[in-house]
Design a protein that fits this description.
By secondary structure, this protein is an alpha/beta fold. Helices cover 28% and strands 16% of the residues.
């Protein structure tokens, strides 16, 4: 039986049915592209085992290596948080909390923040299904963690690349210092770390536009919708 809504016209129903067919085609194409992403050949070898600033278990500033972020798995997604935001972004910043008094251009991007807000609530479920995601800002970890406390974020792993070249190397930061919202996906191949310096010769990377985290989580654990 077809779906209709109160008082709709035949013209509306005909146009809506035609649009639905295009929506179904688009959805199937997105699924197909996601499948192709997962079958890309390995990307370039990661040049170094980047050291990120973070907060330790005791809440004190600490560092963590890229290799440690895998947490025993073989896939790692790092989202490039635009913090600081693009200098051309004049949308209002936070009006309360740690970031209320900093210059607008030094604060976090509202769109990135909204995205992380969404991830915050779903992260326990995502990780329970095998996902592995962390968020990397350029701002100092003290600012990032203070803002996270204001937002009530407890599940998102937050890192700072203030003291390494990660965001520049993987185009989360332009030559002019402007930040970009992308996701870098790393794959760790068998063999572990190589050499006395701990350089990770077993990593490769891919840079993708942000879609859904499930695209890069172990696919066998995520249901696929079909229409």
């Amino acid at each position: 039986m077809g779906v209709t809504f109160p008082n709709e016209t035949p013209e509306y129903r005909s146009a809506r049915a035609a649009l639905l067919k295009r929506e179904v085609t688009l959805r199937r194409e997105m699924e197909a592209v996601a499948a192709l992403l997962r079958t890309l050949p390995p990307g370039g070898e990661v040049p170094e085992d980047y050291s990120f600033d973070c907060l330790g278990a005791d809440g004190a500033p600490s560092t963590v290596r890229l290799s440690e972020l895998f947490r025993g798995g073989d896939t790692l997604m790092l989202y490039h948080y635009m913090f600081p935001r693009h200098t051309g972004d004049i949308r209002p910043g936070p009006t309360t909390g740690a970031m209320a008094q900093v210059p607008l251009a030094s604060g976090p991007c509202p769109s990135c923040t909204a995205l992380i807000d969404m991830w915050e609530g779903t992260m326990p479920h995502f990780e329970g299904l095998g996902g592995n995601l962390a968020v990397v800002a350029k701002a100092p970890i003290t600012q990032v963690s203070a803002f996270a406390r204001d937002k009530g974020w407890k599940h998102i792993r937050l890192l700072s690349a203030a003291n390494n070249s990660f965001k520049r190397d993987y185009h989360g930061e332009g030559a002019d210092g402007q930040q970009a919202p992308i996701m870098t996906v790393f794959k760790r191949w068998p063999g572990g770390l190589s050499g006395s310096t701990g350089r990770p010769k077993c990593f490769s990377s891919r840079v993708i536009r942000v879609r859904t985290c499930g695209t890069w989580a172990p696919s066998s654990r995520f249901g696929r919708c079909s229409t």
